[in-house]
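Hey L., structure's done. Input below.
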Amino acid sequence: MRYSPLILMLLLLPACYRETEKAMQKNAMIQEQKTNGVELDFYVTNQTNKTLYVACFYYAVKQIRTRWSWYKTPVYEIKPGDKILIDIHTIAEKKEMKNIYGYLGIFENKGEAEASIYELLEDKNKIELSKLLHLKKSNILLQTESYGFKGETLDWEHEKNGLNKNIKHKELDFLVENQTEKDLYITCFVYQQELDHGHWVFDKTDVIEIKSGQGKFIDVDTLRVPKDAWESVIGILGVFEHDKKEDADKSTFELLKPDQKLIVGYLKRYQDKKVVIIPKKYGALSGFDNQYPKVEFERKSIK
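Output:
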């Protein structure tokens, strides 16, 4: 019995398909073996006081000769104080592993976390992790910080298995002295680069009361950043009269009025110096009884 070419092709097609599938699976196993030891998994620790639901969205190629696309890990529940491992499964070629990057989706509602997709993630629900290979089983610390009237916002820190501790600089704390003859509330807005995020942001120090004739140190968070970034940290003092405590607490750099801020400049210059706040002397506009300006400062040596 003779078969037409079309019938022969239809008879052989399933067998060819099975062989092709076996070959692809074999190649996938080979690639998985080649990438053995190259981990993209990382830890997440919840240092907030709320239960959070997290998932990692990562851009990768999971099979040989397929397109890159977005993938999502299972949703993990993290109670306050808990630490979990985000499992990233990929069998990409080793040369492509270094290009896989991702975002961490963070939610307070499990349903929203389960339904989420990368394309519709709001900024408040994600943090950029950049290339996952750089995480190397390190730990992402989820935290909250308070910034003026905005209240508590979600923040994070990349704990690099002790690597951050290798970058050491002198403290940038500095002394502020009040010589205005009025009690003041003072805070400092520190413009600094965050090692984890890479971008420059304003960090606000605690609001402190400095009575007239007294001096207190402004406590600047210890920075573990490259030397050039440490040398470029700038401080802007927020200065508030004694009856403006609430304004001081709610203040943000972006909303400071001109008469409420003193740009003290690079904080590295105050290693052995102090900021002395004095009434502004400018003719009829001198002192606190006029709208603008009210105060100025001098940089003096600490005796």
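The mean pLDDT is 79. The longest strand covers residues 184-193.

-- N.
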